[in-house]
Amino acid sequence: MRIAICDDSRESREEILKNICENPFIGEQLEHMQFSNGEELIDAYESGERFDLVFMDVEMGETNGIQSGIKIREYDSKAIIVFVSNYPKYAISAYDCEAFYFIVKPIDAVGFQKVLNKAIEKYKLVHQYYVIKSKSTIRRIEVQNILFVETVRKHLIFHLASEHIEIPGKISEVTEQLKQYGFYQVHQGYCVNMNHIKEFCLYDIIMDNDERVMVSIRKRAEVMKAYAEYLEKVY
After folding, report:
1. 82, 103 in Cβ contact below 8 A?
2. What CATH number should be reported for the domain holding residue 68?
């Protein structure tokens, strides 16, 4: 896991790093870089650097953390951005760059580890692959590129953001394979990636590309409960 720590206080950067290194799930996989302002971090992105997880202050240098986060999104939609700031007033603005979390200083070690564990869970979800196989097709695709899976006449249709892939198969089998990554069968004909759910609308789910997926009437309460538990786990 590649981590960037961006803060104009060296003491704060070292405190964040110390807390990261104490997490048992990161271990020797950790690579990190430190930046004293947003300009340095953006320069790194412009030169080709990419980070899985970014811890960033808000008020620092000419480019504040929110502006830096918006710029990062131009290069990387998957980076998990966590703000660590003395100023909780920026918490709502943090959503402008799809921030994962907003930690208020002074850092509480226990709270920090809870956020970090959730970030690690999301990282794992984002960086998993699924192999689609048929007599004519073998493709490896990122799990998080799958919005939902539909079954039509003994065939499976994998709905991705930019294409659909159709192969023979059973939705019960693909649901069993994908449930560990946050997928849930919401109807006899649909299995959805809960990370791509935008909202519930009566007996439809609206995905984040605005496609609608039908929810079984008898399963609606169960699906809502499963979605709430998923959000609690990764957000």
Report:
1. yes
2. 3.40.50.2300
For residue range 96-127, list pLDDT tens digits in order: 999 999 999 999 999 999 999 999 988 887 88
CA distances from 109 to 60, 105, 148 (A): 23, 11, 37
* Summary mean pLDDT of the chain: 93
**Runs of H (alpha helix) within 2-135:** 10-21, 38-46, 65-75, 109-126
Those residues whose C-beta lies under 8 Å from the C-beta of residue 125, and which sit 6 or more positions away, are 143, 144, 181, 182, 195, 234
Residues whose CB is less than 8 angstroms from the CB of residue 92 and which lie 6 or more positions away in sequence, other chains included? none
Residues 150, 159: contact at Cβ < 8 Å?
yes
In the numeric block, which tokens belong to residue 135?
A: 């007599």
Q: Cis check for the bond before 24: say yes or no (omega within 30 of 0).
A: no
> Please, are residues 223 and 215 in contact by the beta-carbon 8 Å criterion?
yes
Q: Which of 69, 104, 126 is the last residue of a domain?
A: 126
Give the pLDDT score at 27: 61
The Cα 122–Cα 184 span in angstroms is: 16
**Cross-strand partners of 53:** 3, 80
Please give the tally of structural domains in the chain.
2
Predicted pLDDT at 99: 95
| Residue 40 vs residues 31, 68, 74, 167, 231: alpha-carbon distances, Å | 17, 10, 16, 47, 33
The pTM assigned to this predicted structure is 0.71
